[in-house]
Amino acid sequence: MNILITGGTGFIGAQLVPVLAGAADQAQGDHLTLLTRRPEKMREHYNAWAETGRLRFIASLDELSRDEAFDAVINLAGEGIADKPWTSQRRRELHASRALLTESLGDWLRRAKHAPQVLISGSAVGWYGNQGERILEEDAPAETGDYTHQLCRDWEAAALAAAPPSTRVCILRLGVVIGPGGGMLRRLLPVFGLGLGGELGNGQQYLSWVSRSDVVQVILRLLTDRAMNGVFNLTAPAPVTNAEFTRTLARLLRRPAFFRVPASILKLGLGEMSTLLLDGQRVMPSRLLGADYRFVHASLEEAIRAALNRESAA
Ligand SMILES: NC(=O)c1ccc[n+]([C@@H]2O[C@H](COP(=O)([O-])OP(=O)(O)OC[C@H]3O[C@@H](n4cnc5c(N)ncnc54)[C@H](OP(=O)(O)O)[C@@H]3O)[C@@H](O)[C@H]2O)c1
């Protein structure tokens, strides 16, 4: 396939791109065009693929000709939601890097001569807002006052508007992605490794997670399965409370995790961004299960174990 990818140079892309493009020494693979603010650095990083001609890096959609015929577009670009406090400037960046970038993708798709068969576009379980213990399938209503809902709502709306009428659209409401070398685990490992891990707030907030391998496998399925379209909760079917997550990670690392960080401290330090840690969603991937998708890592323990094995092998 010929695939255009935004946001393919991050944590998810690090596994997705080699799977799609094939190993550098293999003869077969998809042809990928990656939109990135760092084309030179990425070319260097993927140097081993240079000879294959299967990877191209562009800094702007203006570099694409109208004749370009992409079979699929995968749209994952977005500034890190947990990287900096949500000042009004930061909210503009979070919005621009998702909704506005998706709108400009739509502008390009309208100019292009060929419509892709499928647009797979990112979103997050934050779309549901803070929902306590309620089990959330794809048709559950959102807490519309929450910032994460508003950000994801605009991102999803931009994706639906960007797709030409003949293009199948799949929206991924991603849970926290667990894998080696990045994401939440990379932030937690140093803390838990020192025995300083612990529950956040009362520990009862739900965390919906998914392994990075499952994110990649689901994207592969959506690329080719014409029966799949619409919104998909991309989470493992076993969401856990923060307390359970903390216990599982500490046990697998063989470290104590007695420190409890009070909600008031997190609110003081992080402002509204503390909702990422103190609020939660108990999400079920009902549409993926209904489509007989078998999760590579259906339990948190398996997902963390697999990530830790890869960390120690690296
Ligand atoms: N990982 C998770 O746990 C998780 C959970 C829910 C949702 N998601 C969403 O899924 C997407 C991919 O996740 P990830 O973990 O792979 O993210 P990541 O490692 O933070 O990578 C972010 C990607 O977005 C691009 N990007 C960032 N800011 C941009 C900007 N201002 N303009 C254009 N491109 C920009 C980056 O490209 P360059 O730096 O190369 O330009 C990079 O490819 C993100 O949108 C994220 O919000 C992730």
TrEMBL record:
<dbReference type="Pfam" id="PF01370">
    <property type="entry name" value="Epimerase"/>
</dbReference>
<protein>
    <recommendedName>
        <fullName>TIGR01777 family protein</fullName>
    </recommendedName>
</protein>
<dbReference type="InterPro" id="IPR036291">
    <property type="entry name" value="NAD(P)-bd_dom_sf"/>
</dbReference>
<feature type="domain" description="NAD-dependent epimerase/dehydratase">
    <location>
        <begin position="3"/>
        <end position="233"/>
    </location>
</feature>
<dbReference type="InterPro" id="IPR001509">
    <property type="entry name" value="Epimerase_deHydtase"/>
</dbReference>
<dbReference type="Pfam" id="PF08338">
    <property type="entry name" value="DUF1731"/>
</dbReference>
<dbReference type="InterPro" id="IPR013549">
    <property type="entry name" value="DUF1731"/>
</dbReference>
<feature type="domain" description="DUF1731">
    <location>
        <begin position="261"/>
        <end position="306"/>
    </location>
</feature>
<comment type="similarity">
    <text>Belongs to the NAD(P)-dependent epimerase/dehydratase family. SDR39U1 subfamily.</text>
</comment>
<dbReference type="InterPro" id="IPR010099">
    <property type="entry name" value="SDR39U1"/>
</dbReference>
